[in-house]
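Retro notes (design track)

What went well: tokenization of the new backbones is finally stable.
What didn't: we kept losing track of which sequence belonged to which structure.
Fix going forward: every design gets posted as structure first, then sequence, in one message. First example under the new rule, 394 residues:
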């Protein structure tokens, strides 16, 4: 069977199962689940067979992180066999015309995002990007699986249901965040987890009380945690979401006290301080963008050398920016291990078997499953490293 027919067949079946209103065209697609760690040999063979049909993607298509940094995989600790298999996965995807972005933030931070307009339909398979895109950019995407996004890439179409329809983009619950406003990726991630834990009623939460200014890192952490812990594909927040009214909706109200988030974050810090110091630290889940890289480089400006293992995960598009490139150069000079194309959770290396500390609530959910390691959550990884002598001052 030709790849196009296979793709259309699967999308039609999905459309029927979801009682979709036919198919709609997508502006672009984003494929996930492409680490050889997830795919194994069967997945690799499937992709190679698909690529061998000569079929190409019909819309611009980007790819999620793979299992290794394509240039620094040896430094990352990836074995030859894994690297060879991952390279075959990537080659198959690229033969089909996929852009070698290997990033979970590319859909909303990469070059193509500049052309997106509110209301554009896309087919993205990275859940954190779906929440960010629907909520902050106003694009329309369901939380696609790796295969359905791939089949949308091949056909340029997606079933018209769920987040593509106006009626499913209305708020379902009013979440009031009481002062203080959460600060930093860990507190925004904890907020996302609390809302996600509300279950079905939090399908489209209207979040009131977040203030007017949020950093990119905070919005990414909130989106990633909402997608990880609940059914949420979109949130609405005044001054953040193009589709959010200024006036809170009259709906069932749930209150989240900012002090609880602060306290949980402080508890995480206390646990981190009182427990055994892990052997490694990472940030960049979701992958760091330019803003976060520059901030990290500034935080470490007085540090001469990083003694412990500090990993930063970022993307090629952030590295292609002058400020991002300079920040990464300065971090690497100090001994920070900066990797792109890959992610800490779906890469076999490093194994973090000696424990790891992070500010990413999403990774604390997935890493026990993917690597049998439960990361220690900590609000300010760099401050912790400074206090515990992991960083050497000038
Ligand atoms: Fe991205 Fe990997 Fe985290 S795909 S969101 S860095 S689990």
């Amino acid at each position: 069977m030709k790849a196009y027919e296979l793709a259309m067949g699967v999308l039609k079946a999905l459309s029927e199962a979801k009682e979709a209103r036919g198919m709609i065209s997508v502006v672009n697609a984003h494929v996930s689940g492409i680490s050889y760690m997830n795919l194994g040999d069967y997945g690799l063979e499937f992709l190679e067979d698909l690529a061998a049909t000569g079929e190409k993607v019909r819309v611009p298509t980007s790819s999620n992180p793979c299992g290794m940094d394509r240039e620094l995989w040896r430094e990352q600790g990836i074995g030859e066999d894994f690297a060879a298999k991952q390279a075959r996965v990537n080659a198959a995807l690229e033969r089909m015309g996929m852009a070698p972005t290997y990033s979970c933030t590319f859909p909303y931070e990469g070059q193509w995002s500049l052309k997106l307009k509110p209301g554009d339909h896309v087919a993205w398979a990275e859940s954190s990007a779906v929440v960010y895109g629907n909520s902050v950019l106003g694009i329309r995407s369901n939380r696609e699986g790796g295969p359905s996004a791939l089949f949308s890439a091949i056909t340029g179409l997606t079933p018209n249901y769920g987040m593509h329809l106006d009626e499913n983009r209305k708020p379902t619950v009013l979440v009031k965040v009481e002062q203080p406003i959460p600060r930093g990726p860990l507190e925004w991630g904890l907020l996302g987890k609390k809302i996600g834990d509300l279950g079905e009623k939090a399908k489209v939460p209207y979040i009131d009380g977040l203030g007017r200014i949020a950093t990119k890192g905070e919005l990414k952490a909130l989106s990633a945690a909402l997608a990880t812990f609940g059914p949420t594909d979109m949130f609405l927040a005044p001054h953040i979401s193009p589709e959010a009214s200024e006036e809170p909706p009259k709906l069932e109200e749930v209150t989240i006290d900012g002090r609880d988030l602060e306290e949980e974050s402080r508890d995480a810090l206390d646990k981190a301080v009182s427990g055994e110091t892990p052997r490694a630290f990472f940030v960049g889940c979701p992958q760091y963008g330019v803003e976060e890289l520059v901030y990290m480089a500034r935080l470490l400006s007085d540090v001469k050398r990083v003694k412990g293992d500090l990993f930063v995960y970022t993307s090629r598009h952030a590295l292609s920016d002058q400020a991002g490139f300079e920040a990464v150069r300065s971090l690497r000079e100090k001994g920070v291990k900066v990797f792109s194309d890959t992610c800490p959770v779906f890469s076999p290396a490093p194994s973090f078997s000696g424990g790891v500390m992070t500010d990413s609530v999403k990774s604390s959910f997935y890493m026990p499953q993917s690597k049998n390691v439960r990361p220690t959550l900590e609000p300010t990884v760099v401050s912790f490293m400074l206090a515990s002598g992991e960083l050497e001052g000038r």
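Added context from the reviewer: The mean pLDDT is 95.
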